[in-house]
Write a structure and sequence with these properties.
heterodimer; A: about 230 residues; five-stranded parallel sheet; about 20% strand; B: alpha+beta; 12 helices
Chain lengths: ~230, ~500
């Protein structure tokens, strides 16, 4: 973290124990933490505290998390990380479609949670000044120059492969839903053609992964989307 | 029906006719002193009319003959003699006869109508008492008992009511109570129901049976069969007549159907309530159990980061908490499965992704170094619900790691004649022979092997989820070495064989 100003995170969860533990973990990692137990409290703290990131539990006592997610995004420029139960695939996709940055599944792994937090906060910075270059494991991508290298060797990608990889590389470490990828690369008419996505991901993996049968670079969240892993 | 032979009643009516004619003779004799003798014949109309209209044509004709003779004898010259017969006497005789015939036949018709009305009201009373007995029965058994009792009473026979059942008919009730029907009788009942015709004693089919069975049919189909039996009478239904039997059978059938419909409505209502409760339980269990688990894991992570505890102990804590989480997930899945509340969201799935997802989940709490993946990257995509399949595979691999003797587990994907097989192999002691199928039943933990421990839910969920998606699962022992092999068979219908490539 940059010295001087600590990024502020609003933790919205109705369980005090979870809030306490999240505060401890985030505090330790160098973030400033504010807590809210209800949707109403969260919306008012959003105005007064102006957090950079909101950790939003979808199961709130007073209002549905999916309902206040658009309000948070409209009333602030905070990023939202959704915390949800494992079963709720549809809920995750809905939250991402509404503009949430990513999700964490309960019970979450603290390391994983902190990694997601880092990604979300870094994207705020990256979005402000896109450097255009990214290194993930052995693979380097230059979004401006449209060049992909693996272990120093240029890799030739077809236009669709490039489109897909670039879309993932624009959001490194963050899940991008199937529909978002299909809209971006194939156009809105093909939003549901998951098959195109699978085929193109396969050929990308064949070109970029050390072992295409055990992908480490481009991973899939079942039923949700793909993620370009940017941390080892 | 009235008999033509004179009964006591009709003998009396003839005696009454004689008496009335006698009275008229006496009256006419007295009146003769006041009136001209020619009008005396009219008086004889009185006994004729009275006899014919009160007692029918026979006594009427009798009175007419008697009256004509008496008139001739007492009131025509020569008095007290039948001689000197004249034309006017014949006219008197014919008039009296005609009146008797007219009045008698009219009476007969009225009486027939009265008898019919009485018979009809008696029949109505029988049916009314029958349907009254059927109303208010609280369940099928009570209704069946009422039907048998009433039918038995009406026909003076033993009665038995049967309903459809598996594998043989189900004896709903009988009067007097029976333990069960003989096999011939049961066959006759089965025949009556399946052909919707009477069968058994006194009919053309299965007449060796001691019972006669009648189908109970409604517009919805055959709902049961009513059997009647009487020692002394091969056709007990004859006692009440065919139309009445049909009405009684119709009433019984309708009552049975009504009862069943009411039961079904109650069942649906109960199920709906159960579903509502189950839904509420699901979300509350999910929340209430997940929250402490999340807290435990977060607390353990904090201890680890602060270096305040032994890493091995923390690994144990993490592993067990995650195991508990998987049990909770399994429980929730099982409830959802049994409630029929699964909604499939199918999409083309790359098995590579499915396996990688499972390894990622297991990696958090398991040592997966011993896990070998042999799934080629060029297998066809499979149309599956990714979430259900994830749980299916997670449980299979978890089971293999836990029960496979702690040795190597292999996940292998391969083409088969029928489509695609995804196999999870372990190097443990394998399954006890003959138990391969049972292992997928809920809460079965196989004894006689070290395959104990665990809730036994995992494999039942594997089977339930797999079948919901159109897959099948099999458990066998490995042929190449000791160990169990769990095979998920993916039929070719679910494979996406010719990939649509739009990659230009």
């Amino acid at each position: 973290m940059k010295a001087g100003r600590r990024a502020k995170i609003l933790v919205v969860d109705d369980e005090p124990q979870i809030r306490r533990l999240l505060r401890a973990a985030l505090d330790r990692a160098g973030y400033a933490v504010v807590e809210a137990g209800t949707a109403r409290e969260a919306l008012s703290l959003l105005q007064t505290q102006k957090p950079e990131l909101v950790l939003l539990d979808l199961g709130l006592p007073d209002r549905d998390g999916l309902e206040i997610l658009p309000l948070i995004l409209a009333q602030s420029d905070a990023k939202v990380l959704v915390v949800s139960a494992r079963e709720a695939t549809e809920e995750k996709v809905a939250a991402l479609d509404l503009g949430a940055d990513d999700f964490v599944t309960k019970p979450f792994d603290t390391d994983e949670l902190l990694a997601r937090v880092r990604v979300a906060l870094r994207q705020r910075v990256a979005a402000a000044a896109p450097s255009g270059a990214l290194t993930v494991g052995l693979v380097t991508v230059d979004l401006m120059a449209r060049v992909v290298r693996r272990a120093g060797q240029d890799v030739h990608l077809t236009p669709k492969e490039w489109g897909l990889f670039a879309e993932l590389a624009r959001h490194p470490g963050r899940v991008v839903t199937h529909a978002q990828l299909l809209r971006a690369v194939w156009g809105p008419a093909h939003e549901h053609d998951v098959e195109y996505l699978r085929v193109t991901v396969r050929s990308l993996r064949a070109k970029l992964e050390a072992d295409p049968a055990a992908p480490r670079l481009i991973t899939n969240e079942p039923g949700v989307g793909y993620r370009l892993i940017d941390e080892p | 029906m009235r008999s033509a032979l004179p009964s006591d009643g009709s003998l009396r009516s003839y005696a009454l006719a004689i008496l009335m004619v006698g009275l008229v003779i006496a009256c006419a004799g007295f009146a003769q002193t006041l009136l001209p003798p020619a009008s005396a014949d009219l008086l004889f109309l009185i006994p004729v009319l009275a006899s014919a209209s009160l007692h029918g044509m026979g006594p009427g004709l009798f009175a007419a003959v008697l009256g004509a003779l008496a008139y001739n004898f007492f009131f025509t010259e020569p008095v007290l003699s039948l001689r000197d017969y004249r034309l006017s006497d014949t006219v008197t005789f014919l008039v009296l006869l005609g009146v008797a015939i007219l009045a008698g036949s009219r009476t007969a018709r009225l009486r027939r109508q009265a008898q019919l009305a009485a018979a009809r009201s008696k029949q109505d009373a029988i049916l009314a008492s029958f349907s009254r007995a059927l109303v208010g029965a609280e369940d099928e058994a009570a209704l069946g008992q009422a039907i048998c009792q009433e039918a038995g009473r009406l026909f003076g026979a033993s009665a038995a009511l049967l309903g459809p059942g598996e594998p043989s008919l189900h004896l709903i009730a009988s009067h007097p109570p029976l333990e069960h029907l003989g096999s011939v009788d049961a066959e006759a009942a089965q025949l009556a129901m399946s052909l919707c015709t009477s069968a058994g004693r006194g009919t053309t089919s299965m007449s060796a049976s001691g019972w006669t069975f009648y189908p109970l049919a409604t517009s919805q189909g055959v709902v049961g069969a009513l059997g009647l039996a009487r020692e002394d009478d091969p056709e007990p239904s004859a006692a009440l007549g065919e139309p009445r039997l049909a009405t009684i059978l119709d009433q019984a059938a309708l009552a049975l159907e009504r009862r069943r419909l009411a039961d079904e409505v109650a069942d649906v209502e109960r199920l709906r309530e159960q579903d509502r409760l189950r839904g509420a339980l699901l979300s509350s269990v999910s929340h209430d159990l997940r929250t402490p688990l999340t807290a435990i894991l977060a607390a353990s992570a904090q201890l680890r980061r602060e270096g305040r505890s032994d890493p091995d102990t923390l690994d144990l804590l993490d592993g067990e908490a995650r195991r508990l989480d998987r049990y909770v997930a399994n429980l929730l899945d099982m409830v959802r499965l049994e409630a029929g509340a699964l909604r499939l969201r199918t999409e083309p799935v790359d098995l590579i992704d499915a396996v990688a997802g499972v390894l990622r989940d297991l990696g958090k709490g398991f040592d997966v170094a011993d896990l070998r993946v042999e799934v080629p990257a060029d297998l066809p995509l499979v149309r599956l619900d990714p979430h259900l399949f994830h749980h299916c595979l997670l449980n299979l691999v978890d089971n293999a790691l836990r029960h496979g003797g702690g040795r190597g587990v292999t996940i292998r994907g391969l083409r088969s004649a029928a489509g695609l097989d995804l196999v999870v192999l372990d190097e443990g002691p394998g399954l006890p022979p003959g138990q391969e199928r049972r292992i997928f039943e809920t809460f079965v933990r196989l004894r006689g092997s070290d395959r104990e421990g665990g809730t036994g839910l995992g494999l039942a969920i594997v089977k339930g989820f797999a079948e919901a998606m159109g897959l099948s699962v099999e458990a066998t022992n490995r042929s190449d070495q000791p160990g169990a092999a769990f095979v998920v068979r993916i039929p070719s219908a679910l494979l996406v064989e010719s990939l649509r490539v739009n990659a230009e």
